[in-house]
Design a protein that fits this description.
2 helices, 66% helix, mainly alpha
């Protein structure tokens, strides 16, 4: 049971990293780039990636807590 949870945790973390990297926009607006002062509404694929990031983060936290509890 413990190894299945660890495999699930690794899988979720890899998918989460990929989804976060897919969100990086222009060359200057990445992880350490300057922030834009204009308000933008997320639409289409950008909105789906944003919501998927939130969902995967929550799943990762739950799986991590289960991993600690069951070990």
């Amino acid at each position: 049971m413990g190894s299945a949870i660890q495999i699930l945790q690794i899988s979720v973390s890899v998918i989460l990293v990929i989804v976060i990297l897919m969100q990086v926009r222009d060359s200057g607006a990445g992880l350490f780039g300057s922030s834009s002062t204009t308000f933008r509404v997320r639409r289409g694929v950008e909105k789906v990636l944003f919501q998927l990031t939130i969902f995967l983060s929550a799943v990762f936290v739950v799986v991590s807590i289960l991993s600690v509890r069951l070990s």
